């Protein structure tokens, strides 16, 4: 990238250069309707963005060089079904000042970055879309979904067969996040869609205050198993809506993570029995949340809306299909259409039970072929299918997936996962 014929200059900035980072942060804050960057914000960002790739588009405005568009990418990991974490190019902070929008700046920055990621061997890019219509044209598809819960605490009674709440609970002081990070890291490796959180993520999470992960009235509670090992935590804020002397507190769960059903039950039991609190709300939760299954009255938990969360973009079709594992068996030829080019391919996906591991997940053989395809699909739709959160049968019924209904059914069966993919990590 460099100077273009439109007079705009595209280049990289180093997050260690504080004044360059300040100039870069101005449009990225303004485009998201946020306040200008403060010194405290810049201190934190300098630490958090070390090693990230920051693109800036400069323009001369009123005789002065200013940043008018930004993009940030970094290397991260996303968990694949049955296979654990794989590397992804994580894309964030895609912003263009309102004075410069719809001139192709996002397209220039993003296509250049996707080409770089592909050249450097990434099979995927990932992002969280501010608006759903933006990223399909760049080959992204919604791969995980998330929902919100509203729990009426007065109606919560756990079924007698729910896992017993063994172990212990303790409040965690601000800044102490090592055990939380350890629990999260174990949990995210098992569930498709899980994203890693680095030390800077946890450092920021450890600070409490207005607008942070945990607000000034918030708390973090850690669960330990009977041997004292951490196996779950919840971070929450509290809002007191009491009228007169009638208690009406609401707990807002920011993050709840457990590696064990007993820890999960203990944390929800704790939240829903807090004195002075009538309602527990949670956001960014999995669409197949366990809680209603544990309760005598599952309607104590109201769920919705459901929205897309993590979007994936396959950059290398054979690499992406081989990065996950499968349940069941079958052979399909897939033709993947990629308007931007890098992932266009026809491949034979062969999943044979002879390659089945002890855990039931099967490795696929993926080879390029010139055979006629059973299924024709866009790279965005393949990206949506890959973690198991979207049904190929539904895409076929919607007219998005070419081939017979039987082929779509076979692809749905191969891509299915026992748990819905879930990513609760903003980036
Ligand atoms: C979203 C945003 C980055 C787009 O930047 P931009 O430079 O205007 O985008 P481009 O000009 O490259 O647009 C490329 C195409 O996407 C379309 N597009 C861009 N933003 C869109 C949106 N929000 N909704 C629908 N379509 C959109 C454009 O119309 C254009 O379509 P065309 O090729 O058919 O003409 C910019 O408007 C912005 O900063 N918005 C506020 C912050 C934000 O939402 N960022 C996204 C973070 S995930």
How many domains? The number is 3
The DSSP helix count reads 11
Rg calculated over all Cα atoms: 23 Å
In percent terms, what proportion of residues is strand?
25-35%
Global geometry: globular
How many β strands by DSSP? 20
Highest CATH level, the class of the largest domain: Alpha Beta
**What's the arrangement of strands in the largest beta sheet?**
1-2-3-4-5-14-6
Bound small-molecule species: coenzyme A
End-to-end CA span: 25 Å
CATH fold-level name of the largest domain = Aminopeptidase
Written account of the structure:
The mean pLDDT is 95. The strands form three sheets. A seven-stranded mixed β-sheet has the order 1-2-3-4-5-14-6. Strand 9 and strand 10 form a beta hairpin. Helix content is 24%, strand content 34%. It folds into three domains: 9-122, 3-Layer(aba) Sandwich (Aminopeptidase), CATH 3.40.630; 146-307, Aminopeptidase; 317-415, Nonspecific Lipid-transfer Protein, Chain A (2-Layer Sandwich). It has 427 residues and is an alpha+beta fold. The chain has helices at residues 18-31, 39-48, 105-119, 178-188, 199-206, 261-271, 291-294, 317-323, 379-385, 392-397, 405-415, and strands spanning 9-13, 53-61, 64-80, 84-96, 124-128, 141-142, 145-152, 168-171, 219-224, 230-240, 249-258, 277-285, 301-308, 310-314, 325-326, 330-337, 345-356, 362-368, 375-378, 402-403. It is built from eleven helices and 20 strands. Coenzyme A is lined by residues 31-32, 94-96, 101-107, 129-131, 133-134, 137. Residues 31-32, 94-96, 101-107, 129-131, 133-134, 137 line the site of coenzyme A.
